[in-house]
Amino acid sequence: MLSKIQTKLLIVDDLPENLLALEALIRAEGRQVFQARSGDEALALLLQHEFALAILDVQMPGMNGFELAELMRGTERTKHIPIVFVSAAGRELNYAFKGYESGAVDFLQKPLDVHAVKSKVTVFVELYRQRQAINRQVEALEQSRQEQETLLCELRATQDELRQAVRMRDNFMSIVAHELRTPLNGLILETQLRKLYLAKGRAEAFTLDKLHAMTDRDERQITSLIRLIEDMLDVSRIRTGSLSIRPSQVDLAQLVTQVLEGLSAQIAAAGCTVSLQVEAAVSGCWDEFRIEQVIVNLLTNAMRYGAKRPIAVRVADAASHGIIEVRDQGIGISADNQARIFQQFERVSSSGVSQGLGLGLYITEQIVKAHHGWIELQSTEGQGSTFRVCLPLAAASTV
Ligand code: ADP
C-alpha cells in the first residue's frame, strides 16, 4: 500500500551531467524526479510541487545549496522537506547547516557512492510515504468521526421526535378519552333517567314533546361522537394518503347556505348569530362533502372561540378561485399560535373555552390542499379571527 504513494524528488545541480547521473541513480517506480539547474529554478518547482526530498549541490554559481536551504527553511510550504547536501569538498560537509528547524538534513560526498545515494534516498522516500499514509489514516479517522457525529445528531433528533410523538400520542389518548366520555356520559345519564321513569311507570315523562326533546339531545350527543370518530379516521386516511376527493360541480353559495341551515340549532345553542354575505355565485369542481366539512369545521371553531359575538360568513370569487370566509370577533389567536394550529393535535390552551381534539384545522387544511387550494388566516388576540379558504375552480385530486 505504501509503495503506491507517489513521491516527488527534487535534485538541484548546475551541471546537467550531474543531474542526469543522479536521476539515473534514484529513479524508480513510484518516484518522479524533478531537475533544477539553479536555486531559482528549484524555488519555482518547490512552489508548484510537494517534494519528499531535495538533493542540493552545495557549490552552485549564484545561489549555493546552503542559501537555497535557508530560503526553504523560511517558507512554511517547504520548511519540512528533508534535504541532502552534495559536495565535493569534504571540508564543507563539516559545516553544520544551522537553523534548518524541523526538516531532516543529511550529506553526500562526491564522487557519489551508488549504494549510499540509493539507500539514503530510499530511507527518505519511505519516511515520506509513511508520513503520507499516517496523514491519510488521520484524515479517514477524522472523516469517520465527523460521520459518526452527524449520525449521532440524526439519532438524537429522531429520538427527540419519537419522544415528542409518544408524548403527543399519550396526550391525544387522554383527550380522546375525555372527549368521548362527555357525550357518552350525557347518553348514559339520559338512559338511566328514562329507566327510572319506566320503572316507576311515569308515563308523563314520555309525552310527545318530551320524546322530541330527548331524541334531539340523543342525536346531538351521537352526532358529536360520530364527528370525533370521523375526525380520527380522516387523520389516518390523510396519513395513508387515502383521503379521497370526489369532485363534482358545486355551487358554493348554495352549499354554505345549506350548511348554515343544518347548523342553525348549534348556532342558537352557542348563543351567537351568523350572517351570510354572498358577493358572487361561485361554482367550481370540488368534493361537496369535503368542502362541507371545511365550512362546518371553521364555523364550529368560530362558535367555540367566537365569544358569542356575531359571526360573518362571506362567499366571493377571485380570478381563478372561489372564496369562503368565516370571521369571528372572539378570543383571536396569537402570531406564535397561528403557525401551529394547523398541525395535528395542536390546541391552544385557553381556560374556559371548550376544546376539541385539535384535529379540525389540520383536516381542514389537508382537504383544501387536496383541492390545490390554501387557507389564509388573519387574527389579533382578543379581537377575533378571519379564516379565508381559497379554492381553485379547477378539478381536485387526492391527498
Ligand atoms: P379543536 O378541535 O381543538 O378546535 P382545531 O384544529 O379546529 O382543533 O383548532 C386548533 C386550535 O386552534 C384550537 O384549539 C384553538 O385554540 C385554535 N382556534 C381554532 N379556530 C379558532 C378561532 N376561530 N378563534 C380562536 N382560536 C381558534
Which band does the percent of strand residues land in? Answer: 15-25%
CATH architecture group name of the largest domain: 2-Layer Sandwich
Per CATH, what is the topology of the largest domain?
Heat Shock Protein 90
Oligomer: single chain
Q: Round the mean pLDDT to the nearest integer and report it.
A: 89
Instruction: Work out the radius of gyration.
Output: 43 Å
As a percent range, the share of helical residues equals: 40-55%
Q: Looking at the structure, what is the overall shape?
A: rod-shaped
Number of domains: 3
What is the ordering of alpha helices and beta strands? EHEHEHEEHHEHHEEHEEHHEE
- What is the distance, rounded to the nearest whole angstrom, between the alpha carbons of the first and last residues? 56 Å
Q: How is the main sheet built? A: 5 strands, parallel
The CATH class label of the largest domain is Alpha Beta
What is the name of the CATH superfamily of the largest domain?
Histidine kinase-like ATPase, C-terminal domain
Strand order of the largest sheet: 2-1-3-4-5
Based on secondary structure, the structural category is: alpha/beta
Q: Give the names of the bound compounds.
A: adenosine-5'-diphosphate
Low-pLDDT stretches are: 98-102
According to DSSP, the number of beta strands is 12
Structural account:
The protein is an alpha/beta fold and 399 residues long. The protein folds into three domains: 2-112, Rossmann fold; 165-240, Helix Hairpins, CATH 1.10.287; 248-392, Heat Shock Protein 90 (2-Layer Sandwich), CATH 3.30.565. The protein is 51% helix and 18% strand. It contains ten helices and twelve strands. It has helices at residues 16-26, 39-48, 65-73, 114-200, 208-239, 252-262, 264-270, 288-305, 335-340, 360-370, and strands spanning 7-12, 31-36, 53-57, 83-87, 105-109, 248-251, 274-278, 283-286, 311-317, 321-327, 374-380, 384-392. A five-stranded parallel β-sheet has the order 2-1-3-4-5, sandwiched between helices. Strands 7-9-10-12-11 form a five-stranded mixed β-sheet, with helices on one face. α1 links the parallel β1 and β2. The longest helix has 87 residues, at 114-200. The chain is rod-shaped and about 135 Å long. 24% of the residues are buried. Mean pLDDT is 89; it is low at 98-102.
